[in-house]
């Protein structure tokens, strides 16, 4: 098996760390951002997080954080379902993200990871409802894949996606990634890049870190939000941009065998951006290269995140 690539496959190596982490209201030096070993373990089960990106604007003069408010709102939604108390409001976390990007003097694309975890030494297996939380924001540089024409291979996993009836996939909790990790290890073991998981109804759900869509006869089809998927901000962005491009879209249940008849297949997520799939379960998708719809969508996405494609309401500016 190949070593597991991080979800954010184009991330800078972990040794390339920023000077500052934001922690509980303050910029904290990288080396000082530590906790006692007893604070991991059961506490991690209840931890929720977000993944957002700041792109360097095409004019080269500022960073643009993409859909920051939507990401922060989703962090609060995850916390609400997990009954965690975040001691900061959205306004404070928005300011914190901007403070952090400035403090670390980013002038290139940067990935942002806000997260919240129960404070203190948790020895109980079940972190009680209403537990106080620490809130941390980490960041690192990443290399966008939007300009490239890369494609990946995928395979339907034998591991089913977690369901709303047990472990809601709309919660972005670290513990949910146990499910995606099992599927990813299986896919790598079998020589594929990424898994696509089916839900409890054996319909298509999503990948371990991104939603999926297929193109058939000119229409983009993506599993509905109640198919066992995260309420993805990229998915929402893609559906809006595809509408603007005049491509018809449908959100509905998707059968596994539809993947095999697709003209195009692609993942969509903050980390993976728009990532074409060129082979699924050993079958070549389309002509085996990224197709026209995914390519046009990636180009349009790139314009928007870099500030030349409209939707200024999706962009939070950080001047250099
Ligand atoms: C399981 C899963 N699905 C989908 C997504 C895509 O969500 P978004 O577009 O909001 O990044 C992610 C990424 O965070 C994810 O982890």
From TrEMBL:
<dbReference type="InterPro" id="IPR005785">
    <property type="entry name" value="B_amino_transI"/>
</dbReference>
<comment type="function">
    <text>Acts on leucine, isoleucine and valine.</text>
</comment>
<dbReference type="GO" id="GO:0009098">
    <property type="term" value="P:L-leucine biosynthetic process"/>
</dbReference>
<dbReference type="InterPro" id="IPR001544">
    <property type="entry name" value="Aminotrans_IV"/>
</dbReference>
<dbReference type="InterPro" id="IPR050571">
    <property type="entry name" value="Class-IV_PLP-Dep_Aminotrnsfr"/>
</dbReference>
<dbReference type="Pfam" id="PF01063">
    <property type="entry name" value="Aminotran_4"/>
</dbReference>
<keyword id="KW-0100">Branched-chain amino acid biosynthesis</keyword>
<keyword id="KW-0663">Pyridoxal phosphate</keyword>
<dbReference type="GO" id="GO:0009099">
    <property type="term" value="P:L-valine biosynthetic process"/>
</dbReference>
<dbReference type="InterPro" id="IPR043132">
    <property type="entry name" value="BCAT-like_C"/>
</dbReference>
<comment type="pathway">
    <text>Amino-acid biosynthesis; L-isoleucine biosynthesis; L-isoleucine from 2-oxobutanoate: step 4/4.</text>
</comment>
<keyword id="KW-0808">Transferase</keyword>
<comment type="pathway">
    <text>Amino-acid biosynthesis; L-leucine biosynthesis; L-leucine from 3-methyl-2-oxobutanoate: step 4/4.</text>
</comment>
<dbReference type="GO" id="GO:0052656">
    <property type="term" value="F:L-isoleucine-2-oxoglutarate transaminase activity"/>
</dbReference>
<dbReference type="GO" id="GO:0052654">
    <property type="term" value="F:L-leucine-2-oxoglutarate transaminase activity"/>
</dbReference>
<dbReference type="InterPro" id="IPR036038">
    <property type="entry name" value="Aminotransferase-like"/>
</dbReference>
<keyword id="KW-0032">Aminotransferase</keyword>
<protein>
    <recommendedName>
        <fullName>Branched-chain-amino-acid aminotransferase</fullName>
        <ecNumber>2.6.1.42</ecNumber>
    </recommendedName>
</protein>
<keyword id="KW-0028">Amino-acid biosynthesis</keyword>
<dbReference type="GO" id="GO:0052655">
    <property type="term" value="F:L-valine-2-oxoglutarate transaminase activity"/>
</dbReference>
<dbReference type="InterPro" id="IPR043131">
    <property type="entry name" value="BCAT-like_N"/>
</dbReference>
<comment type="similarity">
    <text>Belongs to the class-IV pyridoxal-phosphate-dependent aminotransferase family.</text>
</comment>
<dbReference type="GO" id="GO:0009097">
    <property type="term" value="P:isoleucine biosynthetic process"/>
</dbReference>
